[in-house]
Design goal:
By secondary structure, this protein is of the alpha/beta class.
Amino acid sequence: MHPSIHARINPDKPAMIMAESGVMRTYGEVERHSNQGAHLFRSLGLKPGDTIAICMENRPEFFEVVWAAQRSGLFFVSVSTKLQIAEISYILEDSSAGAFVTSAAVSDLAHQVAQQVRGLAVFSVDGARGAIRDYSKECSSLPATPIADEEAGIEMLYSSGTTGRPKGIRPTLKRGQPITLEDLVVTVATKLYGAGEDTVYLCPAPLYHAAPLRYGMAMMRIGATLVIMERFDPESALSAIQRYRVTMVQFVPTHFIRMLKLPQSVREGYDIGSLKSVVHAAAPCPVPVKEAMMEWFGPIIHEYYSGSEGNGSTFISPQEWLAHKGSVGRPISTKVHICDENGNELPPRSEGIIYFSGGPSFEYHNDAAKTRESLHEKGWSTLGDIGWVDEDGYLYLTDRKSFMIISGGVNIYPQEIENLLITHPKVMDVAVIGAPDPEMGEKVVAVVQPGNWAEAGDELAAELTQFVRDNLSHVKTPRKIDFMQQLPRLDTGKLYKRLIRDKYWQQDGADAAAQPR
């Protein structure tokens, strides 16, 4: 399946609609523009197996460039618009990108990248500027028919960099495959979530992230209509569902939390009755949050657990979740193994490192050591997450291994504390980290974004401390609660927790250096 097929059958059908502006692209337009883009890439000397990169805000041109690369047999790297020059330059050089397509929204970044990365053709869909070429203008003079040597390309994703420098995940690209090659996400969307040509799919997240990119492409392979939010806003999401009669949407837990914190009168003011399937992933969802969403939206909320690496996935239906609350499901085509630090497989209900077997292999681009670290001696692979399975094989996530706090020799997982604190009515967002402690090694610190900044202070800190103490073990109660007006959270729901944690460890080092000797 491929949008080119739908362009032949139903060229005037909307393929994409921008939720706020209403700007639309039909399947016929996507076909024409992606063909012209493919001709442009060939004119640059880019051949199958080469790489391009894309960095732009949510807009129809994003997918037109993606499909141009896909039908040219290229790797396409989607780059976050939130990254800095050094990070973007690193990704472009690491991936060996031959072309970089941007927009006016990131023109300053693109201009600097054009000066720093040699041999890179830099384009903007919004016109030329200095060394930046006009992508739309150059495409407009090229044929709107397919290139002669079409073959399937594939996405090459980079990790979010929440725990360090972004890692490139380069999948195996088999040469000579048809552009209509079967897609795993299409299978999941159709078989598990009931997606089809009549689906109206709402994308509330940035397209440069893995799930919005992959599911957006899957919807266009199916022939559905993709409604793309320019940016997420909780009330705007409800408005888009009502306006476009959305039947399927994919959220992250942060979206759920922000929608639930809307006034009841606002939530009840929108008709969401068109929804048939709601999917969420990307981060663990606190059980009370999902219970509240299930009560509001009905038992239509599906969940999956996976990673950009694509080495394995688990899935859980609404009905299964209600019987196994807190689980992220069971695998369909792979197998889950829970192992201790020595690689020994553990029995049910034992926490350990989550490994997958039977799934596609992957490698971290130009990082053989990191690839080796992800592998079990039996060839299984891990994303670095901690969890456990019950007797029925359902997986439960605990946290990421890299976020674990060791305080006085006790292992503490921040996710459990975060899941509790986010349910407090005065908390909008929270991150729990381990900070240096001379006696315990590390101490638990909660960094809270309050719903009302005026309430930030000792009184709220004491209230939240008591809230945790009343619900969790005393060793998990934060020794300190600090406040931040805005946590550094990605639009996918992932925290840049490293940035928060580093401030505490750097400050501790500076304080130690300042001590008299």
